[in-house]
Amino acid sequence: MKRSAVFCSALMWLTIPSPAMAGGGEPFEPIDAQAMIDACWAQSYELRAGSTADAREGILRSVLCLEERILDQFEVLFSPDVLTREEAAKQLDTIRMSYGGLYWKLYNEHQGCLFCGTQYHTSHVSALARLMEQTLRAAADQRNRYKL
C-alpha cells in the first residue's frame, strides 16, 4: 500500500510541468531586457555621434528597435485574442506620435522659445526611448515572473 502511494506521488511529479520549464517543455531562459536595450542602442551609436539631425535619427532608430523587441515580448505574453502583434504595433505607433509630439512641443514650441536653437531637438526621441525601455523591462519582468 505504501509503495503504491509513493509510486503515485512520483508519477504525479513527473507529469506536472515544472515551473522552470517554458511552454514546450524547454527549460526557461530568463529574458534579459538590458541586453536587448543595449543592442538597440549599439546599432545607432555612430549615427548618434553626428550632427543634431543625425543624433535624432539615431535615437529614433533605437526607439524603433526597442518597439520591435517589445512586440516580440508581447507576442509571447498575449494570445492573439487579447492583443495581436499588429494591434500592439498600432498602439506603440500612437504612443510614439502622441508622446513624442507632446515632448517636442514642450521643449521646442513653448512661448519662451522664440529661438531655442537645436539643443532640444532630440528631447522628444530621448523621452520616447526612456518610455520604450521601461515598457520592455516591464514586459520582460512579466515573462520572467510567469516563465513565459
Folded structure, characterized:
The chain has 148 residues and is mostly helical. It has one domain (31-146). It is built from 6 helices and no strands. Helix 2 packs antiparallel against helix 4, helix 4 runs antiparallel to helix 5 and helix 5 packs antiparallel against helix 6. It is elongated. Residues 6-21 have low confidence and may be disordered.
Tell me the helix content.
55-70%
Categorize the overall geometry. Answer: elongated
Rg estimate, integer Å: 22 Å
Strand content: under 5%
User: How many structural domains does the protein architecture include?
Assistant: 1
Sketch the major β-sheet: none
Task: Find the count of extended strands (DSSP E, 2+ residues).
Answer: 0
Mean pLDDT: 89
What would you say about this model in short?
This protein is an all-alpha fold and 148 residues long. It has one domain.
Secondary structure: elements and pairs:
Blueprint: H1 2-15, H2 33-42, H3 45-48, H4 52-77, H5 85-108, H6 123-146
Kindly list the characteristics that best describe this protein.
single chain, 148 residues, mainly alpha
